[in-house]
Amino acid sequence: MSNLPTIAWIGLGIMGSPMSENLVKAGYRVTGHTLEQDKLDRLAAAGGTAAASIAEAVRDADVIVTMVPASPQVEAVAYGPDGVLENARRGALLIDMSSITPQTSVDLAAAAKEKGIRVLDAPVSGGEAGAIEAVLSIMVGGDQADFDEARPLFEALGKTIVRCGPHGSGQTVKAANQLIVAVNIQACAEAVVFLEKSGVDLAAALEVLGGGLAGSTVLARKKDNFLNRDFTPGFRVDLHHKDMGIVTDAARNVGAALPVGAVVAQLVASLRAQGDGGLDHSALLRAVERLSGARI
């Protein structure tokens, strides 16, 4: 254990709690901070240490991991007198695993460099189940040497771990991931409504579709959500709405047309406007049902 870097973990939500616990299981000493006392209690019960502030959590850490909802929260925990950059030691490695705009990651890396702190952007894909099972895909932006140093930590959290380029590259790839996932969920939702309205056995249909070219990780992971109308959040509509804003804005900046993505972004926004923002993103099925005249 003494040979492993000490970890500060900021943000213990749906993803952050199981991920930090997996580092504890791998033998890392993890000190965590979040705003919810029950999440701090959960980390302590798993063998980690709860900190009362960001400053307390990061002060002696070799590696600081942030896992918060969006760019404003990353900026809130990183900057200011009580933030990561003012309280972490020089030479520490800051790994931001949140899903934020690529530019926010680039700006954070530049600000951290002035403090002698190294940065990787390392957003993940796989949802709550992937976090619990430690099989996340991790897409990383930053220097190769820092990536190599962080790789053992990443291997305790995920299975597919790839450096995608310089700072911001991980976030760009994550934005593309969220585009693909949203379009895939929307296609699955439309297929479910079509199948049910046609009188087909839905469970049988999804089983055979999953074994053919239409099969996907999305269909495999969300099949039970569709069958049981269980939209307990593994990844909330609110967060996917945020991510679709990131990808459409980033695509506009580089001149990439996203015609299908733009439509799905609006469908996600409408689902959120109808009060379903706290549900799992598989609740796009509810939007299709509404459009099809089905009773919700």
TrEMBL record:
GO terms for molecular function: 2-hydroxy-3-oxopropionate reductase activity. Residues 6-164 form the 6-phosphogluconate dehydrogenase NADP-binding domain. It comes from the Bacteria. Residues 168-287 form the 3-hydroxyisobutyrate dehydrogenase-like NAD-binding domain. The keyword NAD applies. Its EC number is 1.1.1.60. Keywords: NAD, Oxidoreductase. The keyword NAD applies. Belongs to the HIBADH-related family. This is 2-hydroxy-3-oxopropionate reductase. It comes from Streptomyces lusitanus.
